[in-house]
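Write out this protein's structure.
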Amino acid sequence: MHLLSNLYTGDKIEVVIVIRNWYNNSVTSTHKMATLCESKKSTKQFNCAIEQAIMKQDYVELGSNENFQWIVCSDGHGHLPRCKNGRKINLVVDLLRSVDWDELLREDNFYALLQKKLAAIDTRGSGATLSVVKIFPTYFECHWVGDSPITVYSGGEAIWNMKCHKPSNPAEMGRLATLKVPYPGNKMRRVRFEPDFNIKVLSPKTIAMVRSNYVIFGLDEMINMTHALGHSGVTGNFISSARIERRPGQMYKVIAATDGITSMMCEDDEPFLASKEADSDAILTLALKRWCQPWEFDGKMEQFPRSNVDDCAIGVWMG
């Protein structure tokens, strides 16, 4: 019961799950697909689900208009010591919640418009990921900042995976090798790194720790990814994008989720994730079950304490 208490170091903020009775013998589902996500419409083919910890740092919304359907998913983060005197660690994700995404996503330069909104507030010590999927009749358009993964499935397997902005991505570490950020006294210095560990699910019953890094963007900003919204604009100055073509007559599935979901999945889960039976509610239920189950870790049976269970959010489209 001790090793795993320090295993998940995502934001180094203690959270307490208040929605479920986590440690009984089974996980009793209490959420509804359409009511706990931000969506006004939810179907078996197009749905989202969310389970919040007390910090309420995850966000997911879906919608549609005459041109495309869309999913927006985000994982907020912040550092309490950086957010004193009434400042909110969820400042950035709260701004994302306030956006009219159907209106914003109609604009080709939606990210530039979003950056203007962020520049108008003091985001020191507060940040968020952003993953956006626009679903057109003949292609998918994916945009992302941070490490909330998007995956496209077809034929029972993943055909496209988002390249997350995180230390395990060699291209990102190469980009950061020459990046300089402002310090007091009008000085520019390179970003620094601190060793960290992340969890890795090896099988449905076995878990391990893998080495990672915290990225230090100046004096006040330390995050466990290489790119994010917020943080006084020292990161988040671009958005990555990809276009995935759809073949006529072929069925597809798209998943956008926060790491509260994906960190509890392993290679053995790919057939389930790719299946038409696995809507957002089913995937969320599996992730929550794993957060509170006993794990084989380093030759012992361990379990996450409640304070280490992460927020979970997911959006799913099938068609």
